[in-house]
Structure formats: structure tokens, C-alpha cells
Design a protein that fits this description.
Layout lengths: L9 E5 L4 H12 L3 E6 L2 H10 L4 E4 L5 H15 L4 E4 L15 H28 L3 E6 L12 H21 L4 E8 L5 H14 L3 H10 L9 H12 L10 E4 L7
Parallel strand pairs: 1-2, 1-4, 2-3, 4-5, 5-6, 6-7
Bound molecules: nicotinamide-adenine-dinucleotide.
Nicotinamide-adenine-dinucleotide binds next to helix 1, strand 2 and helix 6.
């Protein structure tokens, strides 16, 4: 039996080609949702289209207004309406002291992680309103909860995501649209390995030492998985969460500090 209210939901999901986004797409499709994804990587898009021939796929960069407009035009054809918008795309940005960060590095992290959520939500809201309601899930991070030395632009994005989530929850609640954020912690996979390598370099420590000290501040002493994030996304979209809005939910094995 699927999760209540997920079957036949029409969903646009950004950065669905790999990582957390791919795990979300797989789980939603498995539970009967109709999913249209975007990504910028051809190889991920091709693999996704092969694995999910009935799903929609658009090559689009969420930081481009024109690309996002094209994504929504494509999704209008494949979905014919919208029940949920999942703003998942975001990049790690540089791991550098603030005085070494270039304006381009700063801007690209904000453009993809924050402006991308604005561009997609701006087009999703009229569709959700026309539908009589729906939900929005924005990907923040545990970096939206604590200062993160060496990661200024990422921190700005992820705190910003919580701000727009709380704002949109208030703006859109009267239209029966729920808006929540998820704060993933240390997620297993290639991305965290490169973040750990960056931190190790910044602090002059070995990778093993860096990993160990990272998990020393996680109460459950383990990383989480993309599947964990997908399960929480699906919960927030489901009938079980019909009265959950404006919340920022950490799925992080309880990260105590970073
Ligand atoms: P990832 O780096 O693995 O990338 C996932 C996908 O995003 C890739 O397929 C990539 O091609 C696509 N992508 C990159 N730039 C894009 C753009 N401009 N437009 C559209 N697609 C783009 O990411 P992830 O680790 O799966 O993270 C997904 C989200 O979760 C991000 O917002 C990230 O900040 C957040 N997050 C991740 C972790 C983690 O440990 N992985 C922790 C906390 C928060």
C-alpha cells in the first residue's frame, strides 16, 4: 500500500538526476506520483529517462529564468497541473575563508541554491493555487542552523531557505499551500566526501581525522542516507502532514554543531 495522498500527485522536482533528488524521484514514482525533473547533467538525465520512461525530463539550470520557464512549459505538457514543488537543487560552493571567496563563487552558490527556489516557486504557486492547494518542500541543510566556517555562501543560502520557507508558508497558507524545509545532515555519498576533503585541506588535517571529528558531533554517530531525505520529503507531501507547514525539519541523526 502506498503512502496516503502520494499516488497521482503531479510533482516538479529540481536536480532530480542524481544524489538526494534522484532518491526522492525514485521513491515518489514507486509510490505512484507523476514526476517531472530537471537537471543540468546530460548523463544523469539520460539514465533517469531510461529508468523512468513515463516521467518528464528537462535539461534546465534552476538559476536561469529562461530555463525555469522552459521546465514549467515542459511540465505543463507531461503533468497538466501541479500538486507539489520540490526545490532540491543546490551546490556546495567554495570551502574557503571569506576573504578568499570570489564574487563569482559567492553569486553562483546563491543563484543556484536560493534564487533557483524563488524562480521555481514563482511559477509553481499559480499552478498550486489553480489546483486548490498543494505543497512545497525546500531543501535547506544543517548549515541553515549553525554557522559553518569556510562555507559563507552555502550558509547564506541555507539560512535563506529557512527564511523563504517561513515567509511562503504564511503567504500561501490561506491558499491551502503548505511549505516546509528539510535540513539534511551529513549525507552518505560522493558530495560529502569532497566536502570532507575540502575541510581537511582547510584545517590541515587528514581525511580520516576530519570524518571522525565530524561524526563526534552527531548524536547518533552516523551519516544519513539520501533515502532518509526522500522518506521525509514524501511524508511532508502526504496526507499525514496535512497540518504541517512552515516547519524546518532536520534529518541529520542530530548534528549538535558543525
Ligand atoms: P549533488 O551535488 O549530488 O547534485 C545533485 C544534482 O544537482 C546533480 O545531478 C547535478 O547535476 C544537479 N545540479 C547541479 N546544479 C544544478 C543546477 N544549477 N540546476 C539544476 N540541477 C543542478 O547534490 P545533493 O548532495 O543530492 O544535494 C541536494 C540538495 O540537498 C542540495 O540543495 C544540497 O545543498 C542539500 N544538502 C545536501 C547534503 C549532502 O550531504 N549531500 C547535506 C545537506 C543539504
Amino acid at each position: 500500500m502506498g503512502v496516503r495522498g502520494i499516488k497521482d500527485q503531479r510533482v516538479i522536482l529540481t536536480a532530480g538526476g542524481s544524489g538526494i533528488g534522484r532518491a526522492i524521484a525514485d521513491l515518489l514514482i514507486e509510490n505512484g506520483a507523476k514526476v517531472h525533473i530537471c537537471d543540468i547533467a546530460d548523463d544523469f538525465l539520460d539514465k533517469f529517462a531510461k529508468d523512468h520512461p513515463n516521467a518528464g525530463v528537462t535539461k534546465a539550470d534552476v538559476s536561469s529564468e529562461a530555463d525555469v520557464a522552459r521546465l514549467f512549459a515542459d511540465a505543463a505538457n507531461t503533468l497538466g497541473g501541479l500538486d507539489a514543488m520540490i526545490n532540491n537543487a543546490g551546490i556546495a560552493g567554495p570551502t574557503k575563508p571569506v576573504e578568499d571567496i570570489t564574487l563569482d563563487e559567492w553569486k553562483s552558490c546563491l543563484d543556484i541554491g536560493l534564487t533557483g527556489q524563488f524562480l521555481c516557486t514563482r511559477l509553481a504557486v499559480p499552478l498550486l493555487k489553480a489546483n486548490g492547494g498543494g505543497s512545497i518542500v525546500n531543501m535547506s541543510s544543517v548549515a541553515g542552523k549553525y554557522g559553518f566556517p569556510g562555507r559563507s555562501p552555502y550558509s547564506a543560502v541555507k539560512y535563506g531557505v529557512i527564511g523563504i520557507t517561513e515567509t511562503w508558508a504564511r503567504e500561501l497558507g490561506p491558499s491551502n499551500i503548505r511549505v516546509n524545509a528539510i535540513l539534511p545532515g551529513v549525507v552518505e555519498g560522493a558530495r560529502i566526501e569532497s566536502v570532507i576533503a575540502g575541510q581537511a585541506k582547510l584545517k590541515g588535517k587528514s581525511i580520516e581525522e576530519t570524518k571522525k571529528s565530524l561524526l563526534a558531533h552527531v548524536s547518533l554517530r552516523r551519516m544519513v542516507t539520501a533515502q532518509d531525505i526522500a522518506e521525509t520529503t514524501m511524508f511532508l507531501m502526504s496526507d499525514a502532514a496535512k497540518n504541517v507547514s512552515g516547519q524546518s525539519i532536520a534529518v541529520d541523526a542530530n548534528v549538535e554543531t558543525i
